[in-house]
Write a structure and sequence with these properties.
The protein has 184 residues and is an alpha+beta fold. The chain contains four helices and ten strands, in the order H-E-E-H-E-E-H-E-E-H-E-E-E-E. The chain is 26% helix and 34% strand. It binds ligand MTE and molybdenum atom.
């Protein structure tokens, strides 16, 4: 029979077990994240100059220092904030790579796909980036609160700050920026 005097012990045992299960779950998530971390992003596809950019190379672009931006999930749920981060405009990166444009209307048929090492992808159009106010807020970033990004974001990530829901184009573990012509 369980004595009443033993109940506190039982309570602590249950709490301890629950805590270690929770920390196991966190460890698993962190382990998985480590395997997705990227150190460089490749700019490729319909560009004149293919680029491979790590933090050192990114620092040579005009730096954008952002105070804070909200993260809102695709569902509309609040997903926290990005604070005190430093990065560069995707537009500036693409200008350096120079999107190939042979005919007057080529750029209007061009999209830019941000890809991550976990297979996540988010798409932008050339018009969005270069012909709308949204473009100014699309930032490839590599520093937060004065430190490199942690494993959950990788060393390189991206966000589109003018999106109504910023979560979907907050790309963690950024690996590629592909420029693609999608119509003839
Ligand atoms: N690489 C990668 N980036 C991703 C995701 C993902 O699964 N993989 N999920 C996205 C979704 S759905 C949201 S809401 C935000 C959430 O940002 P957070 O994970 O920093 O809260 O990340 C986005 N970026
Ligand atoms: Mo999301």
């Amino acid at each position: 029979m369980l004595k009443i005097s033993r109940l506190p012990h039982l309570f602590f045992l249950v709490v301890a077990l629950a805590c270690s299960a929770a920390s196991l779950a966190v460890d698993k998530k962190t382990d998985e994240a480590v395997s997705f971390v990227t150190q460089r992003v490749t700019v490729f596809g319909e560009v004149e100059h293919k680029l491979s950019l790590g933090v050192a190379e990114l620092r040579r672009f005009p730096l954008q220092r952002i105070g804070e931006t909200n993260l809102v999930c695709q569902s509309g749920a609040e997903a926290g904030k990005l604070e005190n981060f430093v990065g560069v405009r995707l537009r500036d990166i693409l200008e350096k790579a120079t999107i190939i444009s042979r005919e007057h209307n080529d750029l209007k048929k061009t999209i830019i796909i941000a890809t991550a090492s976990d297979g996540y992808k988010a798409v932008f159009s050339w018009n969005e980036l270069f012909n709308s106010p949204l473009g100014e807020g699309v930032i490839v970033f590599f520093e937060k609160n004065g430190a490199p990004l942690d494993d959950i974001e990788g060393r390189l990530a991206m966000v589109s700050m003018q999106d109504l829901r910023t979560g979907p184009r907050h790309v963690r573990w950024l690996q590629g920026i592909e420029v693609l012509r999608v119509a003839q």
